[in-house]
Amino acid sequence: MTExxxxxxQRPIPFLVGWLARLLPPALERDDRAFFRDLAALGAALxxxxxxxxALTIDWTGAIPRDGTTLAVGRDFxxxxxxxxxxxxxxxxxxYDLDAYRGAIRGLLGMELNGQNWSYPxxxxxxxxxxxxxxxxxxxxxxxxxxVAVFVAVGxxxxxxxxxxxxxxxxxxxxxxxxxxQSSFLTAAxxxxxxxxxxxxxVAAGILIGLLTIKPQLGILFPFMLIASGRWRVxxxxxxxxxxxxxxxxxxxxxxxWIDFVLKGLPVQGLVLSDPDRIATPFFPTxxxxxxxxxxxxxxxxxxxxxxxxxxxxxxxxxFRFRRDADPPLMLALFLACSVIASPYLLAYDLLxxxxxxxxxxxxxxxxxxxxxxxxxTYWTPALQLALGTYHLPGxxxxxxxxxxxxxxxxxxxxxxxxx
Length: 420
Prior knowledge:
globular, mainly alpha, disordered N terminus, 20 helices
């Protein structure tokens, strides 16, 4: 401690804290700055510890390295890669059958990977085809690099200071996306871009919404939002794009691939939701899966989910019908929170768009103490879901509804274009 620090009563700042402090947006107010700093510091700590611990579990023997859970490194990316390989086969739809798919993996890699299944619509093969022609690890590296680069590039254009992206990039949602080899970096960028383009470039926004049907649970509220806000041009372009994408998929791979998806692929997703062993509950921050974790019956849990879904739908319709010109960051956060509420089938890494919107809203210095706390809870929802869901304890699924309710109250009190 220097004489100057003793004289002024100050303490030296540790290197890490000082480094993180320099990464904080300078325009933040004191209370916002404290929350922002904590998100960045704790997010960085969890990110680093998890990545190191995960790397130490990897078994590099075999055709594809596996982690401590015996899943392939990149986890869900193996499915994406297999879509790409199937795209050049005569009958790609056959792999929506679990036995056929796992048999194909066993024959290709010479190893059992029974945690894998196909859940995406067949249109994903149009995106996956180039990656399927590379080796799995090379394809994973390319896929991850492209996803992160696109997310950062799009996110940077929507915030006033690049440093706002730091806690988002270190967030639990981003961490889970990275480990899972998931598409969430790319789909998050699409969602952010859609809202930026809605009125400036409606055709581009509509095309992106149509393309988002490769992961339909993320966009289930878009038709209602577009109709409520009177954005008919975007709606028409989105519908045409979605139909064109489905038609192109059928033309290239055959109509049977869509039949296989409906008859074989969708029932598999139903099995995930109805699984009596509740294996998936740690990874689904939805009301339905939180209740299933309590061993509530499928029908009862889905009934409660329907109530929350109705709330989300009503909130989006009201907000975009009567407050269409309100503060864009608030409207984005509300829409994404309601999208999380509305679906029973949504995983922790799918919270990356909402994490971005919540952190951006915090950086806008327009939140009170309750809003800051809800942003903090939203940020940590994936980690909370994993921690509590492992023991089948509910709770994290209520964070998004609470955040949405808060945003609705703020929106009702401030109908103008910005939060006063």
